[in-house]
């Protein structure tokens, strides 16, 4: 295994995980896998890489399902990857997600008895990049 040599202070700093603020962030769908939820419903488990304002990357796992509570989040994720027509036709697949950039709304989940953690609350299409040209 290849390692990254770090001083004790650097290793401690790298090991501390601070929560991202409740905000929108750039992200990239890295993986997607169709699975069954604990309740037996179809879902797609996705792995995203989220970039913060300092350019640091974090991985987030999220679960997209057609359940009532997740309906808007699933639709927005499909829209973010350009698969809204497939969603509206009633068939979305795991292959529709990997490699697509998007924006994610990261929030903070607080549960009694557990440490606070970041979660993905919603999806949006990636911000378009505009090239400005000089006039004159």
Please, could you describe this protein's structure?
The structure is a single chain. The protein is of the alpha+beta class and 136 residues long. It has a single domain, classed as OB fold (Dihydrolipoamide Acetyltransferase, E2P) (Beta Barrel), CATH 2.40.50. The chain has a five-stranded antiparallel β-sheet with strand order 3-2-1-4-5. A hairpin with a 5-residue loop joins β1 and β2. The longest helix has 10 residues. The protein is globular. 17% of the residues are buried. The model has no long low-confidence stretch (mean pLDDT 90).
In short:
This protein has three helices and five strands. The chain has 136 residues and is an alpha+beta fold.
Which spans of ≥5 residues are poorly predicted at pLDDT below 50? none
Level of helix content?
Answer: 10-25%
Number of domains: 1
Our measurement of the CA-to-CA distance between the termini, rounded to an integer number of angstroms, reads: 56 Å
Major β-sheet strand ordering: 3-2-1-4-5
Protein topology:
Blueprint: H1 8-15, E1 23-36, E2 42-51, E3 57-65, H2 71-80, H3 84-89, E4 101-109, E5 117-125
Antiparallel strand pairs: 1-2, 1-4, 2-3, 4-5
Summary keywords:
136 residues, alpha+beta, OB fold (Dihydrolipoamide Acetyltransferase, E2P), five-stranded antiparallel sheet, 5 strands, 38% strand, globular
